[in-house]
Design goal:
heterodimer, A: nine-stranded mixed beta sheet, 34% helix, B: seven-stranded antiparallel beta sheet, 34 strands, serine esterase (chain A), S-formylglutathione hydrolase activity (chain A), hydrolase (chain A)
């Protein structure tokens, strides 16, 4: 697994780098961004994975969210992968913005023609962490995950499907109940087929119901003026209700006046980094 | 070394003449040199120098040569055991004279100096030998010098033909020359001489040892002399003091005697005058009386005589006339004889025995050797810190050199109503010029005066001086102590009825392994409370003292402060009437029973509408953390508020408070974070213990679910004044506060 460095920029005393590698899971070249804080020069640091939303690449988060200062101060290695395989020449992968390229939905596809390449769940939970653990000064025992929108959904399912694997999880405007929203229905039927019972394995609100223990602290920020919230794509209330029933600790903050953009993310990114640092550096 | 080498070119040719100076400067460095080449074989070194000299140009060489020369001198010096720099220098200077003047050794001089000038390479040995010779010269033995000279000549002669060998014999020579001291002759000799010469039978010791013992001896003697000088100086100064004292004492005594003597003489002179005058008067009186008597006696005699004559004449007269006259005469005679003639002497010639009264003189005589009655003593003002709460130490002194047998010390408390003496005066007799007066009332002023007394009588009284007893120890209000990690606020009661000047707080770190055990003090505290700066996570024992001009009181009873977390009590003065606060000040209860009828009156300090109470947080701008134990079904509000938050409004309903309000209705929990605006926050797990972090530094107030380390919300709040924790119960129930605890790790991230 040869890593090819694409770029490296000094940022808040650390380095923001982008690498490219040949993914075994996705069978294509994948890029990912990684921020190495100053602390990483002298020792192993915790790893925090960021999953971006629809249409994004590894670039959006690192250039727009302004997370570097907080990550530098808390000494966190932050990894931001791409959102889907690219250049696989699958028919229809570039037809719409909410399916195919840039819309991997962090599932392992079971349907043709996607099942060969679209294995983003395995990529972000297995292949990428292994790659990072092998090649960078990170402590494999300390990792957390967060994301935005589709990536928020990805973060929640990764944490809920792997109890204990992640120390903490947080999300910005996550798609909380994809089974019931238009984006989710489109993506899941495409990647997972028509059997809706299979969808539930990738639905945060459903996963909560079978989550075994409560040692997971979930922070969710949601802009109140987010058009996708009013469009019924995100459905956070369903998730909160499920968590309240299961007594899974969630702090859900409905932020007055904020929308779905990276401006919203940038406003609260420091809170999220601190939320993870609290558990990763405990 | 480098410095000297650099100097060398400048010396040039005339260096030969300067050589001598060069030695001198060098010699003072001899100690260093010796350390640089402590054990080095001089022979070896010379060969090296020799080798260098043959290979290198002459001019730069000279520095090196001179340097070595210096070293050689040092070595020689070392071999002679003259390690003391000073001695060495002095000796060397002294010895230079004989060398120049010695005329018996012209060959040596020629040999020594000529090659030196003509052939630079020789300077090395030439100078070395010279120095050597000087060294011997020090002992002033001509015979030795002779030997040396011969040895030198020998080596020199060889050396002029062959460089390599000239040093070797010289080395031997040096070694042989140095070692023994003939004790019998008290002179240094060479070891070889011991065998052959007159020293054969003599006791010898190594020269260095002899020198050392001689030096020791001299040092010992010097030490003794120094000691003696010091003693003598001390004795002299002591004598001087005694001299002055004697002079003074006698002068005083003379003066005293003289005044007494004059007094007596005056008295006697006066008596003499009086007596003389009295005697004169008596004499005059007596003489006058006698004279009067004498005059009247004469008159009588005249009369008698006249009568006789008349009678005689009558006898010669005619009978007729006779008869006539005789009758008249008889009458006259009869009359005359009837008058009694006084023949008693009116004044006795003897001197009446008059006793002279010398009693007053005797008294004066007697008083020559006794002392006058003392003059009034001078009472000192109160010395700082000399009093306790029940005693003062009064001191006084004498104005003159009176002899005193005792003092009478009187005192009475100063009273505002009737200043000065009243009936309640106490008197005590003491021998010293000070007295510790005990059993006094604390923090009270007393007036003192003192009178001195001796055989001659009582002095006038001193001026009055006011002394004050120290106050009673204050009483720490242990229940009102508040603390945080950096400080504690200590409050106390004065413990004294009258005001005191100030208070002192003393604090000692509790006996822990790392504690210093040092007592720190905060002094000059004008009020009955003090904010003391402390170290985090320590235990302190705190005492308070009260102070006035008399001094500090005893320590108060101790109070203990732990600087772990922030510690406060609920302020019962702010308590809504429906609330009760537990004895420890950490639990607030709203009971089930119906509230008493009628709304309480509005108040600035007491909550009247909202059923709330405030905590007394220490006014320190740091980070404060406390926890509140709540019931999941209880309706409560917790947070912080300014002290002047409107007591008639709900907490969180204004800009002066920041609170988390929990309401539980129809099995739904509602958490609101109340200030001006209320953010929309949803919490899925109900906290049973709420952690509250007040951070003045970052202007933040954060809430936590302690059990699961969950951060709930953070207010950004501007806190220009200090805030206090506030607690309100909207339904019957209770809130239990946990404080004085360290911050959980998860809280430190906020």
């Amino acid at each position: 697994m040869a890593l090819k460095q694409i770029s490296s920029n000094k940022c808040f005393g650390g380095l923001q780098k982008v690498f490219e590698h040949d993914s075994v899971e996705l069978k294509c070249k994948m890029k990912f961004a990684i921020y190495l804080p100053p602390k990483a020069e002298t020792g192993k640091c915790p790893a925090l994975y960021w999953l971006s939303g629809l249409t994004c690449t590894e670039q959006n988060f690192i250039s727009k969210s302004g997370y570097h200062q907080a990550a530098s101060e808390h000494g966190l290695v932050v990894i931001a992968p791409d959102t889907s395989p690219r250049g696989c020449n699958i028919k229809g992968e570039d037809e719409t913005w909410d399916f195919g390229t840039g819309a991997g939905f962090y599932v392992d596809a079971s349907e043709d023609p996607w099942k060969t390449n679209y294995r983003m769940y395995s990529y972000v939970t297995e292949e990428l962490p292994q790659l990072i653990n092998t090649n960078f000064p990170v402590d494999p025992k300390r990792m957390s995950i967060f994301g935005h929108s589709m990536g928020g959904h990805g973060a929640l399912i990764c944490a809920l499907k792997n109890p204990g694997k992640y120390k903490s999880v947080s999300a910005f405007a996550p798609i909380c109940n994809p089974v019931l929203c238009p984006w989710g229905k489109k993506a899941f039927s495409g990647y997972l087929g028509t059997d809706q019972s299979k969808w539930e394995a990738y639905d945060a609100t459903h996963l909560v119901k079978s989550y075994p223990d409560t040692q997971l602290d979930i922070l969710i920020d949601q802009g109140k003026d987010d058009q996708f919230l009013s469009d019924g794509q995100l459905l956070p209330d369903n998730f909160i209700t499920a968590c309240t029933e299961k007594k899974i600790p969630v702090v859900f903050r409905l932020q007055e006046g904020y929308d779905h953009s990276y401006y919203f993310i940038a406003t609260f990114i420091t809170d999220h980094i601190r939320h993870h640092a609290k558990y990763l550096n405990a | 070394m480098e410095g000297e080498a650099g100097e060398a070119p400048g010396l040039g040719r005339p260096a030969a003449a300067k050589d001598f100076h060069f030695h001198h400067t060098d010699l003072y460095d001899s100690e260093d040199r010796l350390q640089i080449f402590p054990e080095e074989d001089t022979q070896m070194r010379r060969e090296v120098v020799q080798a260098e000299m043959t290979n290198e140009p002459r001019e730069p060489m000279k520095g090196k040569a001179q340097r070595d020369l210096g070293e050689e001198v040092d070595e020689l010096v070392h071999l002679y055991g003259l390690e003391d720099d000073h001695e060495l220098g002095d000796e060397f200077i002294d010895e230079s004279m004989p060398r120049i003047e010695v005329s018996e050794y012209p060959p040596y001089m020629m040999m020594g100096r000529e090659p030196l000038r003509e052939q630079r390479d020789w300077r090395l040995s030439g100078e070395a030998a010279k120095a050597e010779d000087l060294g011997f010269g020090a002992w002033g033995s001509a015979g030795q010098c002779q030997d040396l000279r011969e040895a030198y000549r020998y080596t020199h002669g060889h050396a002029s033909e062959e460089y390599e060998c000239y040093v070797i014999p010289e080395e031997e020579d040096e070694e042989e020359a140095t070692d023994v001291f003939c004790v019998t002759c008290k002179t240094p000799i060479r070891a070889s001489e011991k065998v052959f010469d007159e020293h054969k039978e003599h006791e010898v010791t190594p020269l260095s040892k002899a020198l050392e013992s001689a030096k020791d001896e001299i040092h010992k003697n010097m030490y003794k002399l120094e000691k003696q000088i010091i003693e003598m100086e001390n004795f002299a100064s002591h004598l001087e003091e005694v001299f002055i004292t004697v002079e003074e004492n006698f002068g005083r005594q003379e003066k005293n005697f003289e005044s007494h003597y004059n007094e007596i003489l005056e008295t006697l002179a006066q008596k003499y005058e009086e007596k003389i005058q009295a005697l004169g008067e008596k004499k005059k009186e007596k003489l006058e009386a006698l004279y009067g008597q004498l005059v009247s006696c004469g008159e009588n005699l005249e009369t008698c005589k006249e009568l006789m004559e008349t009678i005689e004449e009558m006898c010669h007269e005619e009978k007729v006339d006779f008869i006539k006259d005789a009758v008249a005469m008889a009458d006259r005679l009869g009359k005359f004889l009837k008058t009694k003639t006084d023949v008693e002497i009116s004044a006795q010639p003897e001197f009446e025995d008059q006793t002279l009264d010398f009693s007053d003189v005797e008294e004066l005589m007697g008083s020559i050797n006794t002392i006058p009655a003392p003059s009034a003593p001078v009472i000192n003002p109160q010395a700082p810190n000399s009093a306790t709460s029940s005693s003062v130490r009064v001191c006084w002194s004498l104005y003159s050199d009176d002899t005193i047998e005792s003092y009478q010390l009187s005192y009475w408390p100063v009273q505002d109503s009737s200043p000065g003496k009243d009936g309640a005066a106490f008197t005590m007799t003491v021998k010293e010029t000070y007295c510790s007066v005990t059993n006094l009332v604390p923090n009270t002023q007393y007036e003192f005066l003192v009178t001195a007394q001796n055989r001659a009588g009582l002095s006038p009284a001193s001026e009055c001086a006011v002394y004050m007893t120290a106050p009673c120890p204050p009483i720490i209000k242990s229940k009102e102590i508040r603390s945080c990690e950096e400080a504690a606020l200590i409050c106390w009661e004065s413990g004294n009825l009258n005001p005191v000047d100030s208070y002192t707080v003393e604090l000692t770190q509790a006996e822990t392994p790392g504690a210093s055990g040092v007592t720190e003090s905060v002094v000059g505290i004008p009020t009955c409370e003090c904010l003391v700066q402390l170290q985090p996570r320590q235990s302190y024992t705190i005492y308070v003292r009260a102070l006035n001009v008399g001094g500090p009181s005893a320590r108060s009873e101790p109070a203990t402060v732990h600087t772990t977390g922030s510690y406060f009590h609920l302020n019962v003065h702010t308590r809504h009437p429906w609330l009760t606060v537990s004895e420890d000040g950490l639990t607030v209860v709203r009971s089930e029973r119906k509230a008493p009828a009628g709304e309480p009156l509005p108040s600035d300090t007491r909550f009247t509408r909202c059923v709330a109470v405030m905590g007394n947080l220490i006014p320190v701008r740091g980070r404060h953390y406390w926890e509140v134990e709540v019931d999941e079904c209880l309706d409560y509000t917790v947070g912080v508020a300014f002290e002047d938050v409107p007591k008639q409004e709900d907490l969180g309903a204004n800009c002066l408070s920041w609170c988390l309000r929990h309401t539980f209705a129809s099995s739904r929990h509602k958490y609101e974070f109340l200030h001006k605006t209320t953010p929309d926050i949803r919490i899925t797990v109900s906290p049973r213990k709420i952690g509250i972090l007040l951070d003045y530094e970052n202007s933040k107030l954060s809430f936590f679910n302690v059990d699961i380390s969950q951060h709930l919300y953070t207010f950004s709040c501007q806190l220009p004044q200090f805030v206090h924790p506030c607690f309100s119960l909207e339904k019957p129930g209770c809130l239990k506060i946990h404080n004085g605890i360290s911050m959980p790790k998860c809280v430190t991230f906020y």
